[in-house]
Amino acid sequence: MTVPCVAVARERGEEVRRRLAEADAFAGEYEIDVADGTIYLPVTDRADVPESLRESVVDREPGRRETPTTPADLLGYEPSIERLGDVVIVDEADPDRAAEIAEAVMASDIPCETVVNRASPIEGELRVRRWDVLAGNGTETVHREYGHEFLLDIAEVYFSPRLATERRRIVEQVEPDEHAFDMFAGVGPYAIPMADAGAEVVACDLNERAVAYLRENAARNGVADRITAVHGDVREVATDWTGWADRIVMNLPHSADEFLETAAALAGDDCVIHYYDIQHEDDPFGPGRTAIEEAAGDDYDVTVETERVVRSYAPHELNVRLDARLTRR
């Protein structure tokens, strides 16, 4: 049977497979073929393939793959789980049900070394959680995203794999040799791809462990020469880069407004700020737009180029992004 497949260089296989999966276009019931350095990724339909990949679609006759055993097969219901590297995250209030899910995950075909259950909400200014380890014995893992690797410990740093596509949208805007400042960098999921795209990056975080992982990840991904990692409150440690930035990432949606004056000080003559916010659905973008304009003051003209809903955060609350260009007057 002929099936449409995206044909790309083998080394891009995992990156493209993830993009297809995120677009619900990957046809997992078929085998992935490799021939002469090209990998063929089966897709559900040509129309489902992201536009940038459609020219790579070819017809192929892949074999059908055996359906792997899933936790749902063993449990009789679909559990709420999330993968981060080889750690599987469970979100269950009932400890007996959580233990049951962990047992099924470990017995399934999911690649997994550790299963954890959320034991607390995100807490404190370092934005970390407490975890109950249900199976396995470690919370450090390597997460792979669009061709990059991130070593991290989920018990020591904040990381959300759900924002992979959002991060990719920012990185695709980066130009070689531009100056990019990541004000809340974590282990580097924005900073490292921006550096790999050719930018010179300064990446700051209040969490000392996150900065240590950031430095290791920069070396792991071959961009250590283009990233300066800084530990501390960005409002206190960023003075060496006043007027330096062409691009600023502000992914701290609950309190990014408290750092806008620092962002305005970092901005060069023409600078794009990627500002993340959480607001009520009735006016998700207005408060952020006003806050950016107030911080820019009389020094800059402000043009909001993009207003995007990233995801639903809570009932009637949205996580949003504004891309605001500051042009010095």
From TrEMBL:
Residues 52-67 have a biased composition (Basic and acidic residues). GO terms for biological process: tRNA N1-guanine methylation. It comes from Halopenitus persicus. Residues 81-328 form the SAM-dependent methyltransferase TRM5/TYW2-type domain. It comes from the Archaea. This is tRNA (Guanine37-N1)-methyltransferase. GO terms for molecular function: tRNA methyltransferase activity. Residues 52-76 are annotated as: Disordered. Transmembrane segments: none annotated.
